[in-house]
Amino acid sequence: MTPTSYYIASIARSFGFQRRNKRLSDASTEMGLLREAEFQLGQHLWEKIEPIEDLSVEYWNLRKLTVEQKQVRAKLDELNATVESLMVQRSAILNDVSQEQSECENKRSNFLLYLEELAYERDNVIQRAKELRRAHEGMLTKIEVIQSDGQPPEEIAKVEIAIENLKSEFRSLKIRRQEMVKEIEEGDRLIDVIDSKLAEFKQEKRDRASVVFQQMGELNRDLSLARSQIGTIELQIHQLKSEVGRYLSRYTKRNPLCAKIAMEQRTMVEVMRLLRISIAMNNKLAGFK
User: What pTM was estimated for this model as a whole?
Assistant: First the structure.
């Protein structure tokens, strides 16, 4: 707000036109701009204020906090680097496959393939046995028919020989089926042994990774503490720089040292002066003295 607009608003106020909410809003916005300007001014000039006695406390506290800030940030960088290294280490542990584990996995795959082939052969044997049973029943029926028709004994003998051949093949199939059952049972047992071994490999990797994860948890707690410290330090630094900027902007016309230090930022100082005047006028128009 300029002096001209203030006088116009004052006249309007005398006639009952009081825009109190707008004046308060304008004053609040300008106060926010002023606070940011005070911080920016302190940010640019705080390292030059050592000769100003009234700002001695702020200056040395800023020096101290700046050193602490660098130390904590260095610690943060170190902790982050360590956590990243542990993450890589944990990933490597979980993804690592030893030669023994690889051999077990290959052995398991080969056994599974072999068992699949046995199961396929067993199904074929069972199917062939069913076909032999049907053929056997057919041969028996054929003998009955031949006998009832009075066929010569030679024909009956031929059928009986064929039946014996069927029985011989069926016995061979039965023996082979029993052998395959034993082989499949042994294969399943070996698969269980290999699965148990692979589970041990996985558990051993999980145990190693758990140790690394525990270390990461401890480091993350340290990181949280360091971040909290950084936050507290930065808040204190922000407040002190704002106080430095506020002092310099208020005393440039009364303190030669302030005027000299703030010379390079004189435009900002002038804007801050005008903001204070505008805030005061808006507050007055809103009914605050």
Answer: 0.62
Contact criterion met (CB below 8 Å) for 242 and 39 = yes
pLDDT (tens place) for every residue of the chain, 289 residues total: 555 655 445 545 544 455 656 767 877 888 999 999 999 999 999 999 999 999 999 999 999 999 999 999 999 999 999 999 998 988 888 888 778 888 888 888 988 898 899 899 999 999 999 999 999 889 888 888 888 887 788 888 888 898 899 999 999 999 999 999 898 888 888 999 989 988 888 888 888 888 888 999 999 999 999 999 999 999 999 999 999 999 999 999 889 999 999 999 999 999 999 899 888 887 777 665 5
Amino acid identity, position 130: K
Would you state the structure tokens that stand for residue 85, as one six-digit string? 């290294």
CATH number of the 53-254 domain = 1.20.1270
Residue ranges in the chain assigned as alpha helix (H): 3-14, 20-45, 56-95, 99-149, 153-251, 256-261, 266-285
Domain ranges in the chain are: 1-49+266-289, 53-254
Provide long-range contacts, Cβ within 8 A and 24+ apart, for 83-86. Answer: 83/216, 83/219, 83/220, 83/223, 86/212, 86/215, 86/216, 86/219
